[in-house]
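Input for the complex:
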Amino acid sequence: MKKWNLIIDVANCTNCNLCTLALQDEHVTNSFPGYAEEMPKHGHRWIEIQRRERGTPPVTDVAYLPTMCQHCDEAPCISAAPDAIAKRPDGIVLIDPVKSKGRRDIVDACPYGAIWWNEDRQVPQHWFFDAHLLDQGWAEPRCVTVCATNALEAVKVEDAEMEQLIAREQLEPLRPDLDTKPRIHYKNLWRYASCFIAGTVSVERDGVVDCLEGAKVSLLRDGEIVATQNSDNYGDFKIDRLDADGGNYTLSVTAAGYTDPFIELTFAQSTNIGEVRLS
Amino acid sequence: MKFHLVLLGMAALFRYAKWRSPEFRSRLANKNIVVQIRTADAKQGRYFNFSNGDITSKSGVHTNPDFALVFKTAAIGARLLMPPIDQLAQIEAMKNFLFHPEGRDEDAVWFAQTVMTAIGARWRVGRKQGDGVTRYCTMTNGGPLFIYVKDGKILRTTPIVFGDDDAEPFTIKARGKTFTPPRKTSLSPHGMNWKAMVYAPNRLLTPLKRVDFDPDGERNIANRGTSGYEPISWDEALDIVAGEIKRMKREHGQGAIAQSNGSHHNWGNIGYYLSAKMRFMNAIGTTEVHHNPDSWEGWYWGALHHWGGSLRVGGGEPFGTIEDCLENAEMIVFWSSNPEATNGIYSGLEGSIRRQWLKQTDIKIVHIDPHLNDTAQFLGGKWIAPRPATSPALALAIAYVWMTEDLYDKDYVATRTHGFEVWREYVLGNEDGTPKTPEWQEAETGVPAKDVRALARAWGSKRTYLAVGGMGNTFGGAARNPTGGQWTRTMVCLIAMQGLGKPGINVGNLQMGVPHDYGFYFPGYADGGISGDLSHTALAVSLYQRMPQLATMNPSTQIIPRLKLPDAIIDGHAEGEVWDARTIEGQFVRAVYPAPGHSPVHMLYRYGNSILGTLSDTNRYVEMYRSPNLEFVVNQSIWDEGDTQFADIILPACTHLERTDIGEWANAGGYGAHFNSQVNHRVIAFQAKCIEPLGESKSDYDIFTAIAERLGLGSYFTEGMRDIDWVKRMFDASDLPSKISWKKFLERGYYVVPPEREELRPATAYRWFAEGRKKDIPEAMPLPGDYTEEFLEGLQTQTSKFEFEASSLKRFKPDDPERPPIAKYSPSWEGPNVEELAARYPLQLITPHARFSFHTQGDGKDSFLNDIKDHRVLIDGYYYWILRITPQDAAARNIAENDLVKIYNDRGAVLCAAHLTARLNPGILHAYESSAVYDPTGEPGKSVERGGCINLLSPARTQMKNAHSMANGLSMVEIEKWDGTTGFVRQAPLTTAQGLGVEAGR
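Predicted:
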């Protein structure tokens, strides 16, 4: 049985919000019996784009993370309300708009915070993969069609095939700690979830300061090298995909003809250590 | 005999239409009229009696018809009425008085449109989807849309996913890869917002009159903006407007009526402001409020003098640069270029798709912008953050490194350029004693000298694309700063030093230059539409021949430069250079208001409501509206927002989803030539009337028709056409009929022009110039008479070469310190260098074009965009505009995330919600311009504004004294956590006569 999955590439999300706008276009003032009551015009984010800035100028980067109902195979919401929420054979989790009426507790059952309470209609609501359209023969959910940068891709495959895809594309769940077997899979999640240490290397020659390309930058913890990188033509280095664990690290910057400075730092967040002037 | 038969045929047509067409039947419902068609000698004819929905007709001449259409002879009548109608023959007959109407103008229009309705009785629009749903197509400023309608309501709107019978897209081969765009259209955020915009709670649904406005008595002009409105009937509203138009001419004379519109309309070649509106305004005679080249400022007034391109508003050639960049470039420098925010213009997210291809290459990417912009977020790369408006200094230092380290194309400079030595002397400091070294620029820009050297060395040794402005070769960004002209000038000088046009060396950001079939003719909106105006649109170039129409001409030659409109109304005097795209020198001509012998303006016909959100120092316009010199203001708008609230009479227009039109995606035509090179597919849409106009709103065309009828101009204005009949004429005038039938076009809603065959694609921009050949790209510019050597030889400049020293500026005002013949740096007059200003307002607020809305379109209106976290923020039930601030500046002012802050200076005070960000350096703030909402907390102009009208704060001063150039991209301000007080006292002068424009730093 082929089932639906959504692949989200964090590196491709530009925060254009076409997905959230298409969602409002589809569901505001439209109710789809058997699937969903109409969505409130404002305030509901069945698809929500989270924003994370890392670093400080001039080494700042920003990642956007679209989140939504994860269509878990072991869905906490179904455990909480098996009478009102069902797992469809195609993998989609669907909250019944009639049976869930008045069930505010369903909102709290979702550990991802992806279920929204419609105060006006007294129903819990979520992004249900546009199942109403898929059932009419539409090829994919609307958020995927409007995504111009391939940040969202819907695939309907056998679970075994999806496992291969997960391995090949290095896809990850949003919250592995929750272990809910979600059908939303993330690529390049590190852009949102990890941290970096950056800086820039320079030298002074004949009274003129210049960027130093090719300086060897090593990050050490307890004397062990965690990562090394050569500075680029701007003297810049950026050691990324790190876990800012609050520990104490040492940076070593070496280049032929220059003495090596050692920089001690506590790594609790993405850090731009600024200019390292070799002499 | 033939005349007799044709009239008999008309009777048969009416009978058929009555049977076939509900629209035809509804036209007849409330009309009782006897219409006679006859020869001038009254010997032949037939009359038609329309009575309570029935039509009878009889051969002969009626004794007392209500209306008669009189042909000079029977032969002429037969020739002109015999289908298919020959438009040119009809128009020529009108001009030569071969037929004429007798009776009321509105009956003439009614009868002619009834005939047209009968002719179109068989037309069926849209595709049935089952379950009572019909799918229509439309085109918007944000891309093409399918509109799904059920029970007369919009169900959903989607982009177009192409079918099997649509053309395949182009493929580009570069670096051993092939790149093909997806077979669907993309949308800008505001393009996915139309359902909310159509059904917005602030739609104007009836004509309104200001409660204390009495056209025959007390007008209470000073209460504009504070007194409320009451609904009135269309008849009353139209009678007042038509009556005021006549009164203005009668009591004041020609020139008394000014008309003003925003820069962008709902999409569509018929309803566009350069089309129907211009036709109407020319018909009544109006003073034109002349636009500054608003998003091109620096390009038109600056770069133009070095490399020509007046017909592109100073921008560069677009062709072939996508392929060339992907194949040949080693590096790309995005300099104040944020296409992910604005996507060039009109083009959905089409450019984003191609910039994603860039990520698949090893091309090095650099971003230069005070803000870590959306494009930098998306593409990554090296971010260099100069202080606002200082980029010209950074550019000069790059040139300094190239000159002193021999890192430029000396052969190119020697053979393809002019005046390099003069500029070189300045850059090296031999002219003014200041070498423009990287260390020199550091004091201005804040960018470390070492970074500039590293950038210059990389750039000077790699084939590099300069991605400059939103479209890559023009548009937006730093061009709208006080130093915008300087910036564009230094930009083109840099790329010329590297060999503009050589493989991998050009201007572009993958936003323009798709290899379309440009030989397939379909006009853009600036190609004249139905304007009839051969002087102020591109109508004369092609469309006038292809779609003959009655010419129109504005009898008033009076012009008001738009940025000086408050001066004109309040002071009675205004001056400014006109944007005249025809030649380089066109911009040196200064318009002076009032024009000799013309009446000063006493009435404003305002079309739209974007002034307060989009122009500069816009509290000036608030005061203008309340000036006693302005006796009457009518505003024709879709939404009640912005400056609509200052009108005496408001006419409710409908959106383009509620009327019929036709248009091609991103095809502006005219001054926006080849804008459609931004989109991956040339899509031409039959823009269906998807639903009936909401409430009592009407199409602009029908509003103009109704006013025209009250002035006896209805027949002239309409040529007897409904809007859909004009659409059919434009369809026939284009190359569409050779590819798709009218019937199919109406049903399917769009046509995709197949891409150019690979071997026939346009050549790469400026390659011809770099190689010293005649121009071989498909653009009919400059004017033939504007070449110096042989036709097609060289650039538009006097020397035909790229001019480091501009001949035009040398001829015009060589001693102008703001715009000397060579590109120089002079610190912004609105900036931290101006001590007395910076002491009071120490923060630099940059205000680029908005990302999610399109100017004021899409914003406010309780629309879906309000929910976008980076667009507005909901605080205490109100959606506030966002002010971006560094944690350092925020901490110094005790400001936290989502605090309401008052941003203020001598010109205004605006409330925003604070968002703390590391995408800026301290001392710099960021907020988009173009709020649609103008919401003063007290008396307009004398209170804090909370809708987010950032342009209340921006300087009115032009970039350069001798150029009508807006500089509203940068304002010096202070901010504080809002304490709840609402008062504001303006300290800046209001008009030029009162001292405006000579403030600090002048």
